[in-house]
Every structure is written in structure tokens, then in C-alpha cells.
Amino acid sequence: MKHVDAVLDTLGGEVQERSWKVVKPYGILVSIVSQPSVELAESAKARQAFLVLKADGALLSGIARLLESGKIRSTVETIYPLAEALQAQELSMTGHARGKIVLKVDSRILDKEKDTMRKHTKMRHNGAAAAAAPAKVVSAAPVVQEAAKGLTTPVVQEQIKAVSTAPAVPEPAKPASAGTAAEEPVTPANLQTAYSGEMNAHTRYLEFAKEADEEGYAPVASLFRAAARSEQIHANNHAEAIRGLGEEPKPQLETPVVKSARANLEAAIQGEVYERDEMYPTFVHQARVEGNRAAARTFHLAQKAETEHAALFTEALEQLERLRGEAVVYYVCPVCGFTTAQANGLRCPVCSTAAEQFERVS
Predict the structure, then answer these.
(1) What is the mean pLDDT of the chain?
(2) Is 88 in a helix, a strand, or coil?
(3) Region at 172 (left for phi over 0; alpha for psi -120 to 50; beta for the rest)
(4) Helices in the chain by DSSP H: which ranges?
(5) What CA–CA distance (Å, rounded) separates 312 from 222?
(6) HSE on the CB side for 86, CA within 13 Å?
(7) d(CA 351, CA 304)
(8) CB atoms within 10 A of CB 285
(9) For the range 10-19, what are the long-range contacts, defined as Cβ-Cβ under 8 Å and sequence gap of 24 or more?
(10) What is the pLDDT of residues 34-44, one digit of tens each?
């Protein structure tokens, strides 16, 4: 492709620099990532611009009209009812959605919220009544409970229950009486659990790699070694979060059970899917509830990598008999553990670490 009138740069870096080769004289390169080089623009006899948008009501209204008229379209991956918000969040966290993930709100819920807002507004403006007597607060519990239908995860149900049954006007905290104690956060224990799991996975995958080599599946052995390095990175990240809480990592190590290469791949898939779909989503949610950003981040990064591991192991299992021969190279992000056979991108798709920093593992 050459001699185009305009280029919209959404990646920056090397891609932006290469883009000057396709802009025709007096054309323009517009970036939404970083300021394009003035020198390169002059060399290409073209123009450059760095576009930064600040959304406002008029702009958003204009976009809405364009959408309604069909002049622009937004790609939608799927539409969930509000009651399935958890499933929508899980799909978003896989990183594989190719369009917008939309939550559809039942009109009955909106009507209830509007009614609640009208009542609160009326109370705020009724100064005389407020001076004469305490204002009555309308609970939003019915709205919360309606929105919560279908959310079956125990942790989420507990949070919904806490919100729904909380008093409208919070009472002052009471000192703990003798024999009672404040509720302890569970994220520190979750960090220890995740740390042990990643340490065990690291050891287990190294042993699986040895078995794959012995059976002649060198490419599979390479994959297991790359995954082992990734799990080690996760363990290091979890350990850092644990130490940030003033504690030390205390791994519960297990002796790995090694079977055939096929059975080992099946076991690896099972473990990765559990961490991807159950363990890490629960841990991320709880860490956010408790306000532990460091833990939420390390859990989230690990979950993203486990998602990729599950896909790589599944593909290897399906093609096992064709995966004989020499070892192959995998690339592992040193920050989040993202693992890939193709490091063609400029940055890690999970944490944005530069691809040139990826570790080569074979």
C-alpha cells in the first residue's frame, strides 16, 4: 500500500514510523497515541497531527445521531441481560472479544431507579418537611435484588446481600465487644493460595517437559517449559504482593504426578481452565472489594496468561501426533507471563511491555 491521503495511527512506535512510507506528499498522519515526528513529516513532505479528544455532551450526542442513522456502526460481540453481568465481565477478561460487550437493562429496573430518584429529589427539595422531621430514605434494595438475579457466584451473592440489606442511613461504628473481632480480609490467604499454585505449576510443567522430550514430543516440551517460566513469573508477582502486606510467601509444595504426554496435557488444560474460570475471577473480585489493588492486578495478569496457556495446551493436545521433531521457540512476557509462539506485536497485549523484552524459551 502506498500513496494514501491519510493514516490514522493507533499503535505508535515502530508502526507509526513505518506509516510515513505510505503517506503521499501533502497527505497527513494522525496519531491518537503519541506526537508524530516533525522531522519525518518534513522528510515525507506530509503533515502530522496528534489528536486528543475530550468528550462532551454535544460531541456524544452527535455520535449517537450518527449511530442511529447507520452512518457509523459499532461491532457488537454479544448482548447480555443485566442479570448476566458476571458472565459479561468474564468474557471481557478473556481478552478474546472482537467487539463491544453490551449489557441490556430491563425497562422495569430503569423505571424503579427513576422512581427512586424522583422520590429522593422530592425529599431534597422539601426543605420545610426536612426541618420539621427527619427525611424518609427510600431503600434501593429492590432494584439491586432485581439486577442480581442470575448472579450465582457465592462471592457476588454475598456482596449483593450486603448492599441490599444495609440500612439506608449508616449507623456509627460500634466498638467490638469482648470476644468479637473485626472481619479479616481474605485476600492475603488468596495470595498465599495462588502463590503455592503457581510454584507447584512451575515444577509440574518442568517435569511434564521432561516426559514430553522422552516421548519424542520436543515442541510440546518447549511449550511446557515456556508455561513453567510463565508460572514462575506469576509466583514472583504474587510474592511481591504478599510482601507488600508485611508477610512472607509460604508455599505448600506438592510432588508432581507425571503421566504420559497426552495425559499431562489434559491435566494442564484442566488446571488452567480452573484458574481462568473459577479461582482467579473470584480472587480478583475479592481483592477489589477489599481495596487491594496490588493483589487485584497480579491476579488479573495471571488470569490473562492462564487463558492463553489453556488455548496453547488445547491446541497441542489436538495436534499431538504432529508435534514431533525439534524444539520450538516460545516468547514469554517477563512482567505478566503472557506466552505466545509469535512475538510479532510491538507490545504485550496484556500489560503493554515491549515485545523486544520478551524471554525466548525453547
Answers:
(1) 80
(2) helix
(3) beta
(4) 13-19, 38-43, 57-69, 85-94, 107-125, 127-132, 141-148, 154-165, 187-214, 218-244, 261-274, 280-289, 293-318
(5) 12
(6) 20
(7) 10
(8) 18
(9) 11/346, 12/346, 13/346, 13/347, 14/346, 15/346
(10) 888 888 998 88
CA dist 207 and 214 (Å) reads: 11
User: Using CA atoms, how far apart are residues 281 and 154, in angstroms rounded to an integer?
Assistant: 12
Closest residue by Cα to residue 312 from 247, 227, 202: 227
Residue 22 and residue 4 in contact, taking contact as beta carbons nearer than 8 Å:
yes
Residues sharing a CB contact under 8 Å with residue 290, sequence separation 6 or more, in sequence order: 185, 186, 187
Beta bridge partners of 31: 9, 50
Give the cell for residue 152: 450465582
The number of residues making up the chain comes to: 362
> What sign has the CA pseudo-torsion 293, 299, 303, 304?
positive
- Overall pTM > 0.90: no
* DSSP-derived pairing of the beta strands 23-31 and 4-9: parallel
**In whole angstroms, what is the distance from residue 159 CA to residue 35 CA?**
44
pLDDT digits (tens, 9 = 90+) for 227-238: 999 999 999 999
User: What are the cell numbers at 328?
Assistant: 520450538
Cell 516440551 locates to 221
Burial of 282 (0-12, 13-18, 19+ CB in 10 A): middle
Nearest to 235 by CA among 254, 220, 250: 250
